[in-house]
Automatic annotation (TrEMBL):
SUPFAM superfamilies: Class I glutamine amidotransferase-like (SSF52317). This is Putative glutamine amidotransferase. Residues 226-250 are annotated as: Disordered. The keyword Transferase applies. InterPro entries: Class_I_gatase-like, Peptidase_C26, PuuD-like. It holds the Pfam family Peptidase_C26. Residues 239-250 have a biased composition (Pro residues). It comes from Micromonospora coriariae. One of its GO terms (cellular component) is cytosol. Keywords: Glutamine amidotransferase, Transferase. PROSITE patterns: GATASE_TYPE_1.
Amino acid sequence: MRRPLIGISAYVEPVDWAVWRGVRAVLVPEAYVRAVTVAGGRAVVLPPDDGDGDVLTVLDGLLLAGGADVGPGRYGHLPDPRTEDRPDRDAGELTLLSAALAAELPVLGVCRGMQLLAVAYGGTLHQHLPDVVGHEGHRPAPGVYGAHPARFAPGSLAATVLAGVDRVNSYHHQAVADPGRLTVSGWAADGVIEAVEDPGRPFVLGVQWHPENEPDPRPIAALVRAARQRPPASDRPARPAPRPATPRGR
């Protein structure tokens, strides 16, 4: 049986390796690839490209990876000085997301990916979470993960996927303020939204933490499982996707 092909959205960043310095490279942390592979999928790295979402016709699932902030213009806010966005990622990933939703592909958003899901569904973000919750626990220090309790709504997709999980890792300074048309299904003890989903679709889930760096990356395993169970293209009715988030007038 062919392994499900899981597209992972990638970064474009200046990097150093060997004798090369500051070379712009397409990359994604290997932890995402490893988690997809261990779950029985085949990872396909997708660089930012907003030309079209045609690549989704050969994929079985989409994983929106973490990374820099979503541009505030996408949800009608002025930028906070501490916001660091990547317009190329926003444009490319929203194009992929729109195509994935129209094709009923399973979608998992991780950290930034969950925030992008919320924005695509008409929501908004807190641009600097410590201003809201009054502490730095969700991103204790540069490159240092926090950890905190989490709870999930009974009967939700998040609760099913994460049965028995009550603590997650954490590395983010932004968070979902308004989930738009998504349903909130997970919370941290301080009220920060930790999971969102679309109950009207087979598998659209966003998690605020980084399951690729957990010893038991259940959300990624669930994405691969949903991709494997997806019906053949000939049996799937076309569905409209939510309108992609475009910069709003300020």
